[in-house]
Amino acid sequence: MAEAVVSDVHKKIRAVFEAFDNESNNTVDVREIGTIIYSLGCFPTQADLHDLIAEVEKDHTGYIYLDNFLPVMTKVLLEHKFPPIPEDLLLQAFEVLDKEKKGYLEPEELTKYMTQEGELFSQEEMDEMLTALADRDNNVLYYKDLISQLTIDPDM
Amino acid sequence: MNVLVVKEEDYLSMVMAECYLLLSRFAAIRAALLIQRWYRQYVARLEMRRRCTWNIFQSIEYAGEQDQIKLYNFFGFLMDHFTPASSERNLISHIFRKNEICRDTEWERYFCYKSIEVTDSYTGPHLTFPMTFCGVSKLVEAFKHKQQLHARYVLQLLGETWRLLRILPNISQVTACNKQITICGDLHGHLEDLLLIFYKNGLPSSEKPYVFNGDFVDRGKNSVEILLILFGFLLVYPNDVHLNRGNHEDHIVNLRYGFTKEVLGKYRVHGKKILKLLQNIFSWLPLATVIDNKVLIVHGGISDTTDLDTIARVDRHKYVSALRPPKLTHDAVNGSKTMNNRNRETRGPVDGRRRVCSLSYQSWAPDHSHDLPRRSLHNASVSSQLKWSVEEELKRRRRLAGFDQSYGELKKSDSDSFTESETTETDEWKQIVDVLWSDPMPQNGCIPNEVRGGGCYWGPDVTEEVLGRNNLQLLIRSHECKQDGYEFCHNRRVLTIFSASNYYEVGSNRGAYIRMGPDLVPHFIQYQASTTCRELTLRQSVGWTESSALRALKEQLFVHKSDLISAFQEFDPNNKGVISLRHWASTTERVLNLGLPWRVLRPQLVSSTQCGMVDYQQWIRELSITEPKLEISDNSILETMYKNHANLETIFRIIDTDHSGLISFKEFHQTWELLSSHLKTEISAKAITDLAQSIDFNKDGSIDINEFMEAFRLVDISAHT
User: Fold this and answer.
1) Residue A39: CB atoms within 10 Å
2) In the predicted model, what is the mean pLDDT of chain B?
3) B539:A132 CB<8 A
4) Is residue A26 less than 8 Å (CB to CB) from chain B?
5) In CATH, what is the architecture of B47-327+436-448+457-527?
6) Residue B188's pLDDT is what?
7) Confidence class of residue B634 from pLDDT cuts 50, 70 and 90?
8) How many independent structural domains does chain A possess?
9) Can you tell me whether residue A140 is helix, strand or coil?
10) Which PROSITE patterns does the UniProt entry name for this protein (chain B) (predicted)?
11) Co-location of A133 and A92 in the same domain
12) What is the pLDDT confidence band of residue B697, given thresholds at 50, 70 and 90?
């Protein structure tokens, strides 16, 4: 039974890995590894990611080999190392930033926190986030709606 | 004492306040971290979906191209095997009559536009010749306002273009020494993109040279307009506008990918004539451009046999279609060879290769004198920069003077004997196919391009070798859609440029063009032509393209319905109607052969799974995305029809020799017989008759191809409800 679970996890990892393996030689660009790990339903911090990359990118070639990645990632998935963020926690987080309890965030408010606290967003990421998430009509972020819209089943 | 107490209280509340501040800051950091993590994960998931979408489009596109070449080879097979008297041969022989090359005087007659009246009711632009900058600008403006150019002017402009193209060398030599040069990739009938490039970069002129790297036509709606604009500028600035031939500048490819249909739709009376002229014009397009002896620009790429000397020398116009070698009679000798075998032979890596080592790059390129001779319309010494043998030079001049020698030669090679010239022709042909159809690959080596079905894949070692041998520093090519409009590979020595934005679907990719100065360093300008996609957020645009990719994929799944069911049943011996996810993924790939990450796509394709099992019968039922518009009792013919929709339409168009859009009842039957022998399946004559009768022919015994195909276009029912 346990073996079947492991082999299933392996297949899942391989499938995602292959989507990024442009040269079909069981390697991916190290810059894609974050996307791969996130796509496998994990929610690591940037620091977690760096540690993980350090662990699998042994020779600093800029490429990650499936052979190195597979065992490490299998362990991550089986141990649920980077579990999804529960919606209520996320809601609380937005409420912390929404000091006046308006139910929405101004782009300026959000930009201040995202680019000055935590694992800082680059200007590019910030612009993208605002275009993607701000309400079309009045240009603010209704975070409650966004959470339910964007958080979908971690199985995918 | 009292004072002190107050002070202590003050101090305490201060500390409290500090603590509170610190705590709330800490909470903010934690909150920020959480949101950042959540958002980054969301973006990564989008990226994953975008990647899959891209793979779907690309796989389906390349599978289509492969079909096209298979079909073409199939006709070749028939030509080689059927006796001349058989009706099939008569039906299709005209596409192989490569000797559309008739004497120039006959062509001149063909170009004759004088009998065509421009009536007062015509509101489009009027052209005067010789073309001027003003004239072409007027044309651009008119096309911007969706006007159409009168057939008389079209023919006149094409005639002028033909005369000019004939004196251009196979490889155009240009310099970026004193002015920046602009290089554009595939346009594929996307007029919006061309207009946007002109808007951002300026119109072509002697101060603003351009190279257009092929694939001007097909797929998009405005191939005609793009051609007329490009040809117009070529006529005004023959020294500063350079057109390379692409794999779509080929009348056989046009039968399938829409250009033939576009021309016939826009020019109902003269369309046939226009197509015939274009066939000839395409064969006269130069094959490559070289900037300052250092940068090679070709549409597809190179192979390990690419030899610029040979390419500079070939009689390019002999290759009216690059899809088939000029002659294959020696294959017909061995009747037992299958199509696939022959496929492999004609473009296999081992067979038929002749490795011509060029003495040096200098033998075909001018030496490093910086003032290249300017091309002139009336200067027959164009080719003098290419040091050929006297004989070849003579031959060329004779041709320019109107004594076409190649006519006799081609006639000779029509005989069944295996001659020396035949080998040369096959070699030459391969040189051209490789340049027009090849794609780079990351691995070393050179292998036939089985994905596209034409040309080859070449590796970084081949790039090094060919560029090194010719003392070149960069290869610029197009031919492949890239998400950002351009992409480097092979250690930055190969650069792909693609100028049609939103190629697969609105928002699927950006277009780009290159600007290059005397330092020969490429600079990129990216753009996206559609207004709709600029307004879309990232999520909406991913969602948009994704759903159209999935729709396309579901169509593919649908047409392979029976194959899928029987393949699934192998893993379902007890007929429970369910199989494991693992089997589902591997089987689907085996049947469709698209190289897609099916497990990743599963949630979007299969609505529900139970304990890792897929209810495939339910799934197949859900895939029934279309409703036949006609009542046909025979389901197998229907499926064949859907699966071979594009092939069938191509055969119809080939058979419709006079491009009338109508074929006779008899031809309709013959088409199906051809298709069924191609597929090696039996389609009964009765089934075909039923099919024919289910369409209401207006008793005149002919069938409208467009209406017939339209009736069978796959329509997504869910999209309409």
Assistant:
1) 25
2) 77
3) yes
4) no
5) 4-Layer Sandwich (3.60)
6) 96
7) low
8) 2
9) coil
10) EF_HAND_1, EF_HAND_2, IQ, SER_THR_PHOSPHATASE
11) yes
12) low
- pLDDT tens track for A111-126: 999 999 889 999 888 8
pLDDT recorded at residue B93: 61
Residue A86 contacts B, CB cutoff 8 Å: no
Instruction: Give the separation between CA A65 and CA A54, rounded to whole angstroms.
Output: 13
Residue among A19, A45, A156 minimizing CB distance to B33: A45
Beta-carbon contacts of residue A154 (< 8 Å; ≥ 6 apart)? A41, A84
Q: Which of B242, B248, B317, B678 is catalytic?
A: B248
- A 92-121 residues with CB below 8 A of B? 92-94, 96-97, 113-114, 117-119, 121
Average pLDDT over residues B236-248: 96
Please give the C-alpha separations between residue B649 and each of A13, A96, B68, B175, B686, in angstroms, as whole numbers.
Answer: 42, 62, 11, 44, 21
- Find which of A20, A24, A38, A127 to mutate to test the B interface (most B CBs within 10 Å of its CB): A38
| Residue ranges covered by each domain of chain B | 47-327+436-448+457-527, 560-623, 627-720
Phi, psi (rounded to 5 degrees) for A86:
-65, 145
Q: How confident is residue B605, by pLDDT bands cut at 50, 70 and 90?
A: confident
Give the pLDDT score at B388. 40
If you measure CA to CA, which chain B residue comes closest to A87? B38
Number of alpha carbons in the 13 Å side-chain half-sphere of residue B4: 1
Q: What is the pLDDT of residues B76-102, one digit of tens each?
A: 666 666 555 555 555 666 665 544 455
CA of A131 vs chain B CAs: smallest distance (Å): 6
* Residue in chain B lying closest to A156 (CA): B603
What is the complex's ipTM, to 2 decimals? 0.93
Q: Supply B144's token pair.
A: 């911007």
For residue range B180-200, list pLDDT tens digits in order. 999 999 999 999 999 999 999
pTM of the complete model: 0.76
- At A125, give phi and psi (nearest 5°): -60, -40
Classify residue A155: in a domain, yes or no.
no
pLDDT 10s digits, B553-590: 888 888 788 888 889 999 888 888 888 888 888 888 88
Query: What average pLDDT does the segment B445-459 reach?
Result: 83
Range of the domain at A103: 87-150
Residue A156 lies in a domain: no
Query: Phi, psi at residue B339, to the nearest 5°?
Result: -60, -45
Calpha distance B72→B339 (Å, rounded): 11
Query: Which residue type sits at B566?
Result: S
B613-615/B578-580 β-pairing: antiparallel
Q: Which of B367, B369, B368, B366 is nearest to B381 (CA)?
A: B366
Termini Cα distance of chain A: 23
B258-300 confidence digits (pLDDT tens): 899 899 889 988 888 899 899 999 999 999 999 999 999 999 9
Whether B248 is catalytic is yes
Is the Cβ pair B538, A132 closer than 8 Å? Answer: yes
Kindly determine whether residue B612 and residue A155, on different chains, have CB atoms separated by under 8 Å.
no
Pick B439 or B50 by higher pLDDT: B439
The C-alpha angle with vertex B69 and arms to B63 and B72, in degrees rounded to 5, equals 145
Once rounded to an integer, what is the mean pLDDT over residues B196-212? 96
Contact B358, B313 (CB under 8 A): no
Last residue of a domain, one of A45, A78, A111: A78
Hey, are the CB atoms on B31 and A97 less than 8 Å from each other?
yes
What dihedral do alpha carbons B41, B46, B48, B50 form, nearest 10°? -160
Q: Measure the CA–CA gap between B69 and B66, rounded to whole angstroms.
A: 5
pLDDT band of B414, cuts 50, 70, 90: very low
Residue ending a domain, choose from A51, A78, A105: A78
Nearest residue of chain A to residue B50 (CA atoms): A19
As a CATH number, domain B560-623 is 1.10.238
Closest CA–CA distance from residue B41 to any residue of chain A (Å): 5
